């Protein structure tokens, strides 16, 4: 794990309560075959199927071939194929269509303390069985403390886990750091600039990531590229943009179609050369929705349902 990652939450007496360590893997609902091909062609990255890690089902009648993991710089993406996610003969999520980002979360040191803090703020969570947790005991998923925020209270069903080994995720290995840009990286990605979450209730979103988890507000204002107005928050190893879309924008259409809760809209990458990105996307048949001097946003219809962003501009206040 990268050194110095994490946000400390302190009590009034200065003692540590819990620690937000690292962003948990973003989940993209998408056709797995299409995703594998796209990441290889466009991002130049291979992927790891879940069944190579999970050799046997966790219980009878539970699929193990529904996910595929892709590591892109400092982001580890879980590509979940809803039509393959079948337990007890039931498909648990609707078909993905062209695809859409769904959720992410954080690794936490001090899960019981976090659970109590969430309760104090009136943010309910569900346990591993999807039931709203009651009482003081930390919700569990088998032997592991794990819970998911209720979207009505937090905006998105953010997931919270203790840090535990997971072989395909390079970020969890001792001594890991963000890899340098390689010459054979077709997009020249340096790191993840930020994640974008669309919201009609910014105060609700910021209560979780700032007041509870201890994120730091870096910048506020209008995003002319995506047509948004909002706030950039730095938490642990990532920056999240919480924003309200402009009327008539592509982001507004996404929020209207996938709300009423908050919507995980996009991931934007910091790159070394925007012209290099433009040439490669064009060669791979990925259409560009928006292009400015320093930023590109892809047409989601040609990029797994995600309006991926690529920029040479750093978020103001980004400490990296």
Describe the structure.
With 320 residues, this protein is α+β, with helices and mostly antiparallel strands. Helices cover 18% and strands 35% of the residues. It contains six helices and 21 strands. The protein has helices spanning 32-43, 111-120, 151-154, 202-212, 250-258, 274-283, and strands at residues 7-10, 16-29, 48-49, 67-72, 75-80, 86-87, 90-91, 100-109, 125-126, 140-141, 144-145, 147-149, 159-161, 189-198, 216-223, 228-235, 238-245, 263-271, 288-291, 295-298, 309-311. Strands 1, 2, 3, 4, 5, 8, 9, 12 and 13 form a nine-stranded mixed beta sheet that branches. It has an eight-stranded mixed beta sheet with strand order 15-16-17-14-18-21-20-19. A hairpin with a 4-residue loop joins strand 15 (216-223) and strand 16 (228-235). The two termini are 16 Å apart. The model is unreliable at 8-16 (pLDDT under 50).
């Amino acid at each position: 794990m990268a050194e110095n990652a994490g946000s400390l939450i302190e009590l009034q007496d200065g003692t540590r309560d819990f620690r937000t360590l690292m962003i948990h893997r973003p989940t993209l609902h998408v056709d797995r075959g299409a995703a594998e091909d796209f990441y290889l062609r466009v991002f130049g990255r291979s992927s790891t199927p879940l069944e190579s890690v999970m050799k046997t089902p966790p219980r009878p009648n539970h699929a193990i071939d529904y996910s595929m993991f892709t590591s892109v710089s400092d982001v580890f993406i879980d590509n979940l194929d809803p039509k393959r996610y079948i337990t007890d003969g039931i498909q648990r999520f609707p078909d993905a269509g062209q695809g859409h980002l769904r959720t992410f979360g954080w690794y936490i040191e001090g899960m019981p303390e976090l659970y109590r803090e969430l309760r104090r703020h009136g943010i309910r969570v569900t346990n591993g069985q999807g039931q709203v947790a009651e009482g003081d005991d930390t919700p569990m998923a088998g032997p592991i403390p794990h819970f998911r925020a209720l979207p009505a209270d937090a905006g998105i069903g953010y997931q919270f886990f203790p840090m535990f080994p997971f072989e395909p995720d390079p970020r969890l290995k001792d001594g890991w750091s963000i890899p340098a840009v390689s010459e054979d990286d077709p997009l020249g990605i340096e790191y993840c600039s930020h994640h974008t979450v669309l919201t009609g209730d910014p105060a609700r979103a910021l209560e979780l990531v700032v007041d509870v988890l201890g994120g730091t507000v870096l910048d506020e204002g209008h995003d002319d590229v995506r047509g948004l107005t909002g706030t950039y928050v730095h938490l642990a190893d990532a920056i999240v943009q919480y924003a309200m879309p402009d009327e008539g924008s592509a982001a507004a259409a996404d929020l209207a179609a996938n709300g009423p809760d908050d919507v995980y809209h996009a991931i934007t990458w910091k790159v070394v050369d925007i012209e290099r990105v433009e040439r490669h996307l064009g060669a791979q048949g990925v259409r560009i929705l928006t292009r400015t001097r320093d930023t590109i946003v892809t047409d989601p219809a040609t990029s797994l349902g995600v309006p991926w962003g690529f920029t040479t501009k750093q978020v103001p206040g980004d400490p990296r």
